[in-house]
């Protein structure tokens, strides 16, 4: 059975606060379930080619990305983990044309880290709200 993990900003904050309270002398780590969170700046959507935020990410800034438009990753590539810090919902697609005949899923826009997607992401849409 496959279990998908989606972490919201509130869940990550709760995990970090729990870790800091339990061991105040230890340095804070950005982890969830033993997986280090990928670095992704505010206002960005970051997509990594491998699970657990491994590999060089494709980064898309809200300021330079068309909303409500299908944006494909470079031909022959895909992503298997992501972080959405755009403040907008994002839908990821298995299809490079954002087709709804394959798998697709929408993630919230603030502080969402997904260490492993349920399918290889080949395209995405950022939504107005």
Task: Give an overview of the whole structure.
This protein is an alpha+beta fold and 129 residues long. It has a domain at 40-126: Sandwich (Gamma-B Crystallin, domain 1), CATH 2.60.20.10. It contains one helix and ten strands, in the order H-E-E-E-E-E-E-E-E-E-E. The protein has one helix spanning 9-22, and strands at 31-32, 35-36, 44-48, 58-61, 71-72, 81-84, 90-93, 104-107, 112-114, 123-126. It has a four-stranded antiparallel β-sheet, with no helix packed on it. A four-stranded antiparallel β-sheet has the order 5-10-7-8, with no helix packed on it. A hairpin with a 2-residue loop joins strand 1 and strand 2. The chain is globular and about 30 Å long. The chain starts with 8 loop residues before the first helix and ends with a strand. 26% of the residues are buried. Mean pLDDT is 79; it is low at 9-29.
């Amino acid at each position: 059975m496959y279990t998908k993990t989606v972490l919201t900003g509130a869940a990550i904050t709760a995990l970090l606060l729990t870790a800091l309270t339990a061991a105040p002398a230890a340095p804070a780590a950005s982890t969830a379930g033993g997986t280090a969170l990928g670095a992704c700046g505010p206002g960005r959507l970051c997509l990594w080619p491998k699970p657990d935020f491994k590999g060089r990410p494709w980064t898309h800034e809200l300021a330079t990305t068309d909303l409500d438009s299908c944006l494909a990753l470079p031909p022959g590539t895909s992503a298997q983990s992501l972080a959405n810090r755009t403040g907008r919902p994002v839908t990821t697609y298995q299809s490079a044309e954002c087709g709804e005949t394959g798998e697709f899923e929408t993630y919230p826009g603030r502080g969402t880290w997904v260490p492993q997607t349920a399918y290889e992401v080949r395209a995405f849409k950022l939504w107005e709200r």
